[in-house]
Structure formats: C-alpha cells, structure tokens
C-alpha cells in the first residue's frame, strides 16, 4: 500500500512545473540494455560479499579533506571517486577501488573524457575501476585502461521508484546517482563491507555558495557546467534545492538499506552538510 501510494505521489508530482523538468530528465536518461551491458553486469556477480565483514573508507573530494592526514589510510581499504587520485598522499594509501559516475557531456567533450581517463589511468596505480556503462563504448573505442580491471554499472531508474531495502545488486541495473559517493556506497555494500566511513563528502555548496575541491584539478579544470570559473554556481537556488532534495533522498534510501542489513555507515567528514548518518571524528578510527 505504501509503495503504491509513493508511486502515485511521485507521478502526481510530475504535473507540477518542476515535475515536467524532472520527467524530461528521467526519459532522457533511460538506458536500454545492450548485449555488452548484460555481459558486463554478469561479471559483477563475482564481487558479491568479497569483503564480507570488513570496513572501508569512501574518500570524497570536498575541501574538508585538506585538514586530514590521509597517510593514516595506508593499509585500509579505500574507495576513491572521480579526481580522487589527485589527493595529497594518494601514493601512500592507494585506493583499492575507484568510481566515476555517468558523465554529463557539454563543456566536457568526448575528447576531454579520453584525456581525463588517460590521466586517471596514469595515476591510479592498481585500483579497480567502476564506470557507468554509458562510457563503455568510449573506453573500447580508444583502448583505454589497458591492463586494468574495469567494471561497469548500468545506472537507470530512480531511488524514488525503489522501495526495497535489500542491498542494491550491481549485477543488475541500479538507480542513477546525483553524486558519486552514492554510487560508491552501493558498491561497498554489495562488496560486503559492514562498516563504511565517509570522508570529504561535504555537500554544502547550497550553504557556502561556492564549489571547491581538496586539490587543484588538471584535465577537468573549468569543465563543470554547473559552476563558473570562480566556483560560484551557474544554477539558481531553486534548481540547487531541487537537486539537493533528490540527493538527500538517495542518501536516505542508502541509510535505510544499511540499517535493514546491519551495515554501519559513518560520516567522518569534518563539517559538511550531510546529516543522514551518524558522525565520528576521523582520528577516532585510529585510536588504540
């Protein structure tokens, strides 16, 4: 009954002005499974429970990370995201997994993405890579990431249409994400981690009015269509709040899945706006 009511309210909201925009966005982002998608997803089944009972750190790229001694992550299982290979001390802790969500093309052209992926491959060490299936053809066409394990997620429907609290099965199409840490959380839970610590997941642009990173971008510098060169947003508060609401619903869904499956997700980001998970200081993880 609750699921049916949720679906009615979701589609009813499409009648509102912003709902029309959201409906167009969903239709545009629908992805039909190809034979290659099916094969790629089947390969993800071998990852189920691979790290059962262990802990991992998901390292975001927010500026709060600049105040952390990331060398303490040496020996830990770390999942980095997007440009995370540019973090200071990356060479000391070297992430086990690296995630890149679906890419929005605009200022970022396919040629830019090829250069970015080449930069990524050069710096990632032996990290296994997770990409969106939308970039699979580009990787094949340009023979990118030679010698590296590359896996794909098919990012399809919305968390709003997924009432289940079962762990998201990455060998099947999964919900699209508005921020890459959500993708990393889905992967971490599927891998079997029982304790997942978030770092640098700030999500406070709507409070700070600027978007910053913990490092200086290289290939991707100036390619974000949502911000100006000085980091100020190009979008209106209305659109920022709509995006933030979608993102918080995704984190709420992740929190519910974690709770239902005995998984502890802890936010050890210094500051930041994300309030869906319990908090614990970064340093506390290394106290004897």
TrEMBL record:
Instruction: Give the top-rank taxon of the lineage listed in the UniProt record for this protein.
Output: Bacteria
Q: What is this protein called?
A: DUF115 domain-containing protein
Organism, by scientific name, is Rhizobium leguminosarum
